[in-house]
């Protein structure tokens, strides 16, 4: 055995060396001081912005993310399939330029008030229907309605509300409309509509733009619980009978059956105005008018319906041309800034609906947060209109923008 080999016998083993190092560190006064302080390291501390420090709707999104469970965030943030349409909804606004065709005005001279389906509106901005708002904040839909009313905006209530409409409607004295998904059984449809009517909500709209969407990410969140489950209406496996109808395609069994005859039946049940949400084709817009709707909503459910479809902003001009003023046209999907709203109005929408951003605000700061999001978009819209020389809503038209859709 050589001298080097003999030295190995006397040297520390790796285990002994690590043990000695641990003892040295433990005896260090630095380690002793660290053991006495708060175990949360200061390096990971971040101060959240206060409500008054928020500069745009995007500032609310990180707080929303931090305040809700992952599944609630994913349900709100994501869309169908590869989310191409979700991304395209946002990208489309980059393809529309605001043209300086008039001299700029002071913001104080801008008045964007209007009347829509019997409702007086200070701004052409409506809170869109979004499901299950109590997981965002305990005040839920009641809080959202109060925020909308405080901001002088109308609100649309989702049929998938986490607070019954009978409790939401008395929460404020604003404008509240009701959304629902078609139910093939007309008696059940009547019960849905009666619940709205009994609460004093008379302007209603069926939503038809989610016929064939399956939320892969939402399904993944469900599976995180350790027990794999199939899509609603498609719970096969374990010896269960093979799925039939739309359930064969992992789609909710209540979809892929909608008909114009159903819309005719709903029109007869509705006491007030009836809108239809989810129009993306000029031909469907004209059919909707033939079947008695009072307004249409151009929507792809914020990218949550069929993936690889067009953005709503792209199809809006051709639908506006086809409708030719016969009924009002509402618009949603992808709106994040006042400039986005200006572009949609310029391309022919009579009003716009905002969904995800109001959810960000409610989850971040409750009622004041949702109100601030709405007011922020109103203020941004006024600023853009003033810069474009538009003193009133009718001044915002196709001459004020130039679309370069690809």
Q: What is the compact description of this entry?
A:
The protein is α/β, with parallel strands linked by helices.
Which helices and strands, and how do they pair?
Layout: H1 3-10, H2 14-27, H3 29-36, H4 60-67, H5 70-77, H6 84-91, E1 96-98, E2 114-116, E3 119-121, E4 125-127, H7 140-150, E5 154-157, H8 165-168, E6 176-180, H9 186-198, E7 204-206, H10 216-223, H11 260-269, E8 275-279, H12 282-290, E9 295-298, H13 312-323, E10 329-332, H14 338-346, E11 351-354, H15 356-387, E12 401-403
Parallel strand pairs: 4-5, 4-11, 5-6, 6-7, 8-9, 9-10, 10-11
Antiparallel strand pairs: 1-12, 2-3
Helix pairs in contact: 4-15, 5-10, 7-15, 9-11, 12-13, 14-15
Question: What would you say this structure looks like, in words?
Answer:
The structure is a single chain. The protein has helices spanning 3-10, 14-27, 29-36, 60-67, 70-77, 84-91, 140-150, 165-168, 186-198, 216-223, 260-269, 282-290, 312-323, 338-346, 356-387, and strands at residues 96-98, 114-116, 119-121, 125-127, 154-157, 176-180, 204-206, 275-279, 295-298, 329-332, 351-354, 401-403. By secondary structure, it is an alpha/beta fold. The protein has a single domain (56-211, 258-403), classed as TIM Barrel (Alpha-Beta Barrel). Mean pLDDT is 87; it is low at 223-229 and 231-238.
